[in-house]
Amino acid sequence: MTEVTPYYDKKIQCLACRHSYSTTKIRSRFVKVKGHESDFCPLYSSNEINPLLYNVTVCPRCGFSFTDEFSKYIVPVLKKDLEKKISRQWEPQDYGDIRTLEDAIKTYKLAAYCALIKKEKKIMVAGLYLRTAWLYRKLNQAEQERRFINLATHEYIESYLNDDFKGTAMSETKLLYLIAELLRRQDKVDEAVKYLSKVIEKQHLSTEPKIVEMARERWHEMRESYKDQKRNTPA
């Protein structure tokens, strides 16, 4: 009897050049989530069996990199842009096998670049940046993590201000909370409080009480931290 491994090959057709290729994915039955951090970063029981590493698929022929969230259609003028900025610079390489954290980071950066050229929704670009930050966190590279949190925050705020997130899986409550939490992680406390206030003000409209409760927890933490700073500041 053949032993079933956590990994399997998935057939993919590139959205840009239509080339067919295989890429590694993880069977969901092997994925065990222990919990989530305050910015929704999933904590898996195994560092190796981590679906985040395989979220992006990279075409080995043309370099176009994308996730399941990408829209399938590419406007002809943008396809020419992709060819000029990605495919003509691409040195054929294969990300279809088992990936390290470093490999995965490269795929997310490629996908973010492709998403910007293709003019995908800002909410999706923000998600690619945030996942890149999570992977840098796993590598304990705080400076790079902060850099990508900053990039994600900018895109999430733009998405909120322009209603770009409407019609996606991201709710307004979750988006406001996430913006606040990412600002908090950059020590931008006043801005974070502004977005947390929006979550709490609109709590009667929300169908996500858990996120409202998380917003209250962050609010309380920041208030206590502020009090501690005041107490420890010389008069």
From TrEMBL:
SUPFAM superfamilies: TPR-like (SSF48452). It comes from the Bacteria. It holds the Pfam family DUF2225. This is DUF2225 domain-containing protein. The lineage of its organism: Bacteria, Bacillati, Bacillota, Bacilli, Bacillales.
